[in-house]
Write a structure and sequence with these properties.
The chain has about 25 residues and is mainly alpha-helical. About 90% of the residues lie in helices and about 0% in strands. The longest helix is centred in the middle third of the chain and has 21 residues.
Amino acid sequence: SRGRALAAIPGMTGILVVFGLVQ
């Protein structure tokens, strides 16, 4: 479960970056 959580961190940050670029 820990590996999945660590793998989700880059995805979440990527989504935030995309949101920032869109706005």
